[in-house]
Amino acid sequence: MTMSAFSFLLALAIAGTHVSHSEESPTSEENTMKNIESKVNDLWQSLLYPVAFVAKDGELVYASCEMKPSTKLEQGKPQVTGQVLFMQAYPQGRLETIINLEGFSKTSNQSRAIHIHEFGDLSDGCDATGGHFNPFKVNHPRHPGDFGNFLPKDSQIKTLKKNIRATMFGPNSFLSRSVVIHELKDDLGKGDNPASLLNGNAGKRLACCVIGISNKNLWEKTSKSFASSKKKRNARGLANKQA
Ligand SMILES: [Cu+2]
Ligand SMILES: [Zn+2]
Q1: Residues with CB under 5 A from ligand 2 (ion)
Q2: Taking the domain 62-231, which CATH number applies?
Q3: How many angstroms separate the alpha carbon of residue 201 from the centre of ligand 2?
């Protein structure tokens, strides 16, 4: 249903209640209109907030995005695979994101930009994902999915980011949109051309994926593996210091 269809029905419903205001008790007509209004509202809410009716207040909701190299990737470019995972408490929690990607060149020292793009459409390599997801019509890098730059280490990007501004819930949900990793670094709006304020001049699209709701398994498994490799690194660091 379009917004105008909704407005029309709502106007009808409100008009119905106004007409009968002069009467003392609600008429059956008034009740019917109220009923319609509440049904239309429920319907509209369920269209706007697809997650609202499966999540309880405070419940953790998870989403995942299975990264695949662009089908238009040129030879010799890194074949990036892995996942981008999301966790957020319904409905107002801060979003956390795990980025767990591999396939980068071991020798390259190239930082890569990662963004949420507007469409969950992978039909034309990663090009059908459109531009940056930009629900508030602002300039780059203030889009909710402007995650910034990531420098691969040992051919991987493994990072957990907290307090991300994007949300899975409500009309500006990023669910069913896409994550794109680019060939180049994001200039974060500081480039000297108009594209800088649209996309950060991050270059070609190496790999992309569609974001969908998931269960907690992958998040828990990945965050545990991150924690244990951090412990190992710390232990190694300590051993090196003591040596
Ligand atoms: Cu992008
Ligand atoms: Zn952006």
Answers
A1: 132, 140, 143, 146
A2: 2.60.40.200
A3: 10
